[in-house]
Design a protein that fits this description.
28% of the residues lie in helices and 27% in strands. By secondary structure, the chain is an alpha/beta fold.
């Protein structure tokens, strides 16, 4: 694992306490977040702000999600050790690292080549065994499914049916649904071959989910 300073660890503990004060009570998720050094996933210009509970820009016009948002999505997934989880939108790799800390087998897709390469190298250097793919999130990775959970870290008006079908029966898909400026965090639980239970969990803001590979097969 990458070494870090006492200062960074102290700031991260303060962030965890802030998340508790905002209603995040799943200690397993909080402990996982406390083990992941968020600052190493951020661009140099924002390093001193790494442990603020805010989203920040990263490369390719994308963002690293607000820690509160990461916690909410992770809790809604309700994963157990050795569960198989597909992440749509690797981004910086921070969310994938949190899932790996929970003992999850993570498969993650990124459409931006720059982000894919950077996240793959970073996660590997940290000792995580995460399967990183450059690809179209709308297609998923059916060859590794069915999944116990799918997490989408970008906003979409409609959830691709291909992704819903890659869930096992009893599996959960978490996605921010809606337009660019405001989305509703939505949980789909697959209850049968063609049946899903749908619940909503507050308003959030994400970048839009796009098809294809950037600078490649865009549609």
């Amino acid at each position: 694992m990458i070494e870090e300073s006492f200062e960074a660890r102290g700031k991260r503990r303060k962030l965890i306490e802030e998340l508790r004060s905002k209603g995040i009570s799943d200690e397993r998720v909080l402990e996982a977040m406390n083990r992941v050094p968020r600052h190493i996933f951020m661009d140099d210009a924002f390093l001193k702000h790494a442990y603020q509970d805010k989203a920040f820009p990263i490369s390719a016009g994308q963002t690293i999600s607000q820690p509160y948002t990461v916690a909410v999505q992770t809790i809604l997934l309700n994963v157990g050790k050795r569960d198989r989880v597909l992440e749509i939108g690797t981004g910086s790799g921070y969310q994938a690292a949190i899932l790996a800390e929970l003992g999850v087998k993570v498969y993650t897709i990124e459409r931006q080549r720059e982000l894919h390469r950077k996240a793959q190298a970073m996660l590997s250097s940290m000792g995580y065994r995460i399967h990183c793919f450059l690809g179209d999130g709308y297609e998923g990775q059916p060859q590794y499914g069915p999944y116990d959970g799918i997490i989408i870290t970008a906003a979409t008006a409609e959830v691709p049916e291909k992704l819903l079908k890659q869930l096992r029966i009893g599996g959960r898909l978490v996605v921010p649904r809606g337009e660019r400026d405001s989305q509703v965090m939505t949980l789909y639980t697959r209850t049968g071959e063609d049946d899903w239970e749908i619940t909503t969990h507050g308003y959030f803001v994400f970048v839009p989910m796009l098809k294809g590979i950037a600078n490649g097969n865009n549609r």
